[in-house]
Design a protein that fits this description.
Layout lengths: L1 H65 L15 H11 L16
Amino acid sequence: MSFLGFLLILLFIFIGIPLIKVVWKIYRLQREAKKAFSQFNQQQQEHTQEYESQQRKQQKRQRRKSMGEYIEFEEVDDNTTPQQSSTQSQSRIKDEPLITDAEWEEIK
Protein backbone atom coordinates (compact mmCIF):
# COMPACT_ATOMS: atom_id res chain seq x y z
CA MET A 1 0.00 0.00 0.00
CA SER A 2 2.84 2.36 0.67
CA PHE A 3 4.14 1.95 -2.88
CA LEU A 4 0.69 2.79 -4.30
CA GLY A 5 0.45 5.81 -1.97
CA PHE A 6 3.91 6.92 -3.06
CA LEU A 7 2.84 6.68 -6.75
CA LEU A 8 -0.28 8.71 -6.06
CA ILE A 9 1.78 11.41 -4.33
CA LEU A 10 4.22 11.52 -7.27
CA LEU A 11 1.33 11.63 -9.73
CA PHE A 12 -0.19 14.52 -7.81
CA ILE A 13 3.14 16.38 -7.63
CA PHE A 14 4.10 15.98 -11.31
CA ILE A 15 0.66 16.15 -12.93
CA GLY A 16 -1.85 17.58 -10.48
CA ILE A 17 0.04 20.67 -9.31
CA PRO A 18 1.05 21.84 -12.85
CA LEU A 19 -2.51 21.19 -14.01
CA ILE A 20 -3.89 23.27 -11.11
CA LYS A 21 -1.42 26.08 -11.98
CA VAL A 22 -2.55 26.09 -15.63
CA VAL A 23 -6.21 26.14 -14.66
CA TRP A 24 -5.56 28.98 -12.18
CA LYS A 25 -3.72 31.05 -14.85
CA ILE A 26 -6.54 30.55 -17.34
CA TYR A 27 -9.07 31.62 -14.71
CA ARG A 28 -7.04 34.77 -13.88
CA LEU A 29 -6.67 35.72 -17.54
CA GLN A 30 -10.37 35.22 -18.10
CA ARG A 31 -11.21 37.35 -15.05
CA GLU A 32 -8.82 40.14 -16.19
CA ALA A 33 -10.29 40.09 -19.69
CA LYS A 34 -13.83 40.40 -18.32
CA LYS A 35 -12.71 43.30 -16.13
CA ALA A 36 -11.03 45.09 -19.06
CA PHE A 37 -14.06 44.62 -21.31
CA SER A 38 -16.46 45.80 -18.63
CA GLN A 39 -14.35 48.96 -18.11
CA PHE A 40 -14.32 49.58 -21.87
CA ASN A 41 -18.07 49.03 -22.06
CA GLN A 42 -18.63 51.47 -19.19
CA GLN A 43 -16.45 54.13 -20.86
CA GLN A 44 -18.25 53.58 -24.16
CA GLN A 45 -21.64 54.05 -22.48
CA GLU A 46 -20.44 57.27 -20.80
CA HIS A 47 -19.12 58.56 -24.11
CA THR A 48 -22.38 57.69 -25.85
CA GLN A 49 -24.41 59.48 -23.18
CA GLU A 50 -22.22 62.59 -23.49
CA TYR A 51 -22.52 62.52 -27.28
CA GLU A 52 -26.30 62.16 -27.14
CA SER A 53 -26.61 65.05 -24.68
CA GLN A 54 -24.45 67.23 -26.96
CA GLN A 55 -26.62 66.28 -29.92
CA ARG A 56 -29.77 67.24 -28.02
CA LYS A 57 -28.22 70.62 -27.10
CA GLN A 58 -27.26 71.24 -30.73
CA GLN A 59 -30.74 70.35 -31.92
CA LYS A 60 -32.19 72.86 -29.45
CA ARG A 61 -29.77 75.51 -30.69
CA GLN A 62 -30.61 74.76 -34.32
CA ARG A 63 -34.30 75.18 -33.65
CA ARG A 64 -33.63 78.58 -32.14
CA LYS A 65 -31.52 79.62 -35.13
CA SER A 66 -34.21 78.59 -37.59
CA MET A 67 -36.60 81.01 -35.90
CA GLY A 68 -34.24 83.93 -36.63
CA GLU A 69 -35.13 87.52 -37.36
CA TYR A 70 -35.96 88.96 -40.75
CA ILE A 71 -33.13 91.08 -42.10
CA GLU A 72 -33.98 93.95 -44.40
CA PHE A 73 -31.73 94.61 -47.35
CA GLU A 74 -31.40 97.16 -50.11
CA GLU A 75 -31.00 96.39 -53.77
CA VAL A 76 -28.15 98.22 -55.41
CA ASP A 77 -28.48 99.03 -59.11
CA ASP A 78 -25.59 97.84 -61.20
CA ASN A 79 -25.11 100.54 -63.83
CA THR A 80 -22.27 98.83 -65.65
CA THR A 81 -23.00 97.14 -68.98
CA PRO A 82 -21.94 93.55 -69.60
CA GLN A 83 -19.11 94.73 -71.89
CA GLN A 84 -17.70 97.00 -69.22
CA SER A 85 -17.82 94.31 -66.55
CA SER A 86 -16.10 91.76 -68.82
CA THR A 87 -13.27 94.16 -69.70
CA GLN A 88 -12.82 95.00 -66.03
CA SER A 89 -12.59 91.33 -65.08
CA GLN A 90 -10.19 90.61 -67.96
CA SER A 91 -7.83 93.31 -66.84
CA ARG A 92 -7.59 91.73 -63.40
CA ILE A 93 -6.88 88.19 -64.65
CA LYS A 94 -3.44 87.31 -66.00
CA ASP A 95 -2.90 84.35 -68.29
CA GLU A 96 -0.31 81.94 -67.00
CA PRO A 97 1.87 79.95 -69.42
CA LEU A 98 1.20 76.23 -69.65
CA ILE A 99 3.74 73.76 -68.32
CA THR A 100 5.43 72.06 -71.25
CA ASP A 101 8.37 70.22 -69.69
CA ALA A 102 6.38 67.05 -68.99
CA GLU A 103 6.82 64.31 -71.60
CA TRP A 104 4.24 61.65 -72.38
CA GLU A 105 5.29 58.07 -72.04
CA GLU A 106 2.85 55.25 -72.68
CA ILE A 107 2.98 52.36 -70.24
CA LYS A 108 2.76 48.93 -71.86
